[in-house]
């Protein structure tokens, strides 16, 4: 008789733990969606078009980059913009198309201002 009661209590405890786990999973999913919405609203949509001058973010790891060294390289000229966010860049100093082509994501680009310090 005692074993039957212990088995029933164990089943109830397991069911309760399963419900708690499901509630935690749902709460975690809701929190992640809320966090994603918050981060997505901070992203500014940048529009690029052919012929525009842009700067490219240098994402390589530099051990000692220098205190005031800029992380942006360029300027580059946009050769082509694709729908999936890929941008083909031309080096503004090179004259040949094949050696100066760079294909990057639009997330690593910034609009170039005409006044640029060196």
Describe the structure.
A five-stranded antiparallel β-sheet has the order 4-3-2-1-5, with no helix packed on it. The protein is elongated, with a radius of gyration of 27 Å. The chain has one helix and five strands. It is of the alpha+beta class. The chain folds into two domains: 1-43; 53-111, SH3 type barrels, CATH 2.30.30. It is 35% helix and 25% strand. The longest helix has 41 residues, at 2-42.
Write the layout of secondary structure elements.
Layout: H1 2-42, E1 53-57, E2 72-81, E3 86-91, E4 101-105, E5 109-111
Give a brief rundown of this model.
This protein is of the alpha+beta class and 118 residues long.
What's the architecture of the largest domain in CATH terms? Roll
Query: What structural category do the secondary elements indicate?
Result: alpha+beta
Describe the main β-sheet briefly. Answer: 5 strands, antiparallel
What share of residues is helical?
25-40%
How would you describe this structure in keywords?
single chain; 118 residues; alpha+beta; SH3 type barrels; five-stranded antiparallel beta sheet; elongated
């Amino acid at each position: 008789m005692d074993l039957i009661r212990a088995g029933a209590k164990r089943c109830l405890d397991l069911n309760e733990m399963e419900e708690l786990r499901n509630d935690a999973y749902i709460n975690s999913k809701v929190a992640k969606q809320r966090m994603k919405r918050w981060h997505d609203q901070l992203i500014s949509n940048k529009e690029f078009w052919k012929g525009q001058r842009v700067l490219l973010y240098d994402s390589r790891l530099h051990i000692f980059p220098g205190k005031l060294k800029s992380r942006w390289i360029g300027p580059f000229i946009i050769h082509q913009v694709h729908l999936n966010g890929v941008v083909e860049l031309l080096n503004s100093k090179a004259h040949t198309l094949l050696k100066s082509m760079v294909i990057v994501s639009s997330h690593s680009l910034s609009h170039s201002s005409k006044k640029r310090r060196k």
